[in-house]
Design a protein that fits this description.
This protein is of the alpha/beta class and about 425 residues long. It contains seven helices and 38 strands. Helix content is about 15%, strand content about 30%. A hairpin with a 2-residue loop joins strand 15 and strand 16.
């Protein structure tokens, strides 16, 4: 069975991180989001997937130049213009010549859903399609799917008010579909599967849905993106070897990439356990592929290849992606540093995300779910609370990538919050 993976969106909720790259290429600990999605499909025997692309498609081709990812053969269907979900599915299926039963997944949903069970459920019901459902506390941001006792979908209500939602079971973004569904979507027409196709199928009585209580996360917001890292480190989802660097547990709750770190003098991991490897001078840089830990790293944390934690630095409950650096006396807690990010001496980053190759200079404070984009410099002494830099509103208007290494201060930031 082949899969269609929807990865064409602009990722506006994760801006400014997604101004430069699609959200599915953002790392989630030691592997990209799309590799984790494809790895989940591969574990259930899916060998071929079509990536339905729209926003910055070249980034995917560069990431997988040989057409292979996480054990899956990948091909690409690049939309000439945005076609919405059903339009994208029809376009991708037509491009790949899919004429048999297939599966559809959203490329920003991380889940341990049992795909085999969903396929068996679909076969037993004999319908035209089956939707995976998951329970949530507040269904108002999702498609709600009430069913009868057999799992037959009664209606498909897109984003109802919380107080009037008929159920807390929502569309989990994984579907098993028969090719007849494609006949209901005009090729090249912008069509929503949630608002148009599924309600029409529900009216025929041929659409079914199955609730699944396994791990599920829409990773498309800053808060959810942070949570995805924490859930992996805590063992609630996935692993630290999903097509990425690989890691070993240096001490309880502290994971280090590429077989361990070199210690520097009094280097410590997890509140007292010495980092492995021989001592070396502080500030000398990491050997190829090996992080240098001279400061303190406490659970639950991950230190990627080529990272450096200088003496006197404190890292806790955080992910340091490949090549990132934490300076002397700096504090990084409950945060994610993307590849090449630098937090200079005496700075604080708490509950926030620092983008690729960005620099938080000396004495800065970046807290409260602040999101720093790629190649940004936060100048010395700046305090950011719940901010996004560059300004999300102006960046959305220009649709341009962030300028490299241009200083941004608090006046350039806006309060964090999901954009439409």
């Amino acid at each position: 069975m082949r899969a269609i993976v929807l990865v064409g969106g602009k990722g506006t909720r994760l801006r400014p991180l997604t101004l430069a790259i699609p959200k599915q290429i953002l790392p989630v600990v030691d592997a990209t989001m799309i590799e984790r999605v494809l790895g989940g499909l591969a574990s259930y025997g899916v060998k071929e997937a079509v990536l339905s692309l729209g926003y910055r498609p070249d980034a995917f081709l560069e990431l997988f130049p040989d057409g292979k990812a996480a054990g899956v053969e990948v091909s690409y269907a690049v939309e000439p213009e945005p076609l919405d979900t059903a339009g994208a599915i029809r376009f991708a299926a037509d491009h790949a010549g899919i004429a048999e039963r297939f599966v559809v997944v959203n490329g920003d949903v991380l889940t341990d859903l049992n795909l085999e069970t969903l396929v068996e459920f679909h076969e037993a019901r004999g319908g035209i399609g089956a939707i995976a459902l998951t329970p949530v506390d507040d269904p108002s941001a999702f498609g709600v799917v009430p069913t009868d006792g057999s799992g037959r979908v009664l209606e498909f209500v897109e984003k109802p008010p919380r107080e009037s939602a008929p159920t807390n079971l929502i569309n989990a973004g994984t579907y098993v579909l028969e090719p007849e569904v494609l006949e209901r979507v005009e090729l090249g027409r912008r069509t929503s599967i949630e608002r148009e196709v599924f309600p029409a199928l529900a009216a025929t009585g041929k659409l079914f849905a199955m609730a699944d209580g396994e791990y599920w996360l829409d990773a498309g917001t800053p808060a959810a993106y942070l949570r995805a890292h924490q859930d992996i480190l805590a063992g609630r989802y996935g692993s630290l070897t999903s097509g990425g660097e690989g890691a070993s547990e240096q001490a309880a709750g502290v994971w280090v990439a590429s077989g361990g770190a070199r210690a520097s003098g009094g280097a410590r991991a997890s509140g007292g356990a010495r980092a492995s490897g021989g001592a070396r001078a502080a500030g000398g840089g990491a050997p190829a592929g090996r992080p240098v830990i001279a400061g303190e790293v406490r659970p639950v944390s991950f230190v990627g290849e080529g990272c450096e934690v200088e003496a006197g630095a404190h890292v806790s409950n955080s992910v340091l992606s490949r090549g990132s650096k934490v300076g002397a006396g700096a504090v990084v807690s409950s945060s994610v540093l993307l590849p090449g990010a630098v937090v200079e001496r005496g700075a604080t980053v708490d509950g926030s995300i620092v983008g690729t190759s960005s620099v938080v200079q000396e004495g800065c404070s970046v807290i409260g779910l602040s999101v720093i984009g790629c190649e940004v410099v936060i100048t010395s002494g700046t305090r950011l609370v719940g901010a996004r830099v560059p300004d999300v509103a102006s960046a959305s208007a220009s649709e341009s990538a962030p300028a490299s290494a241009s200083p941004h201060r608090l006046r350039d930031a806006v309060p964090a919050g999901d954009t439409p």
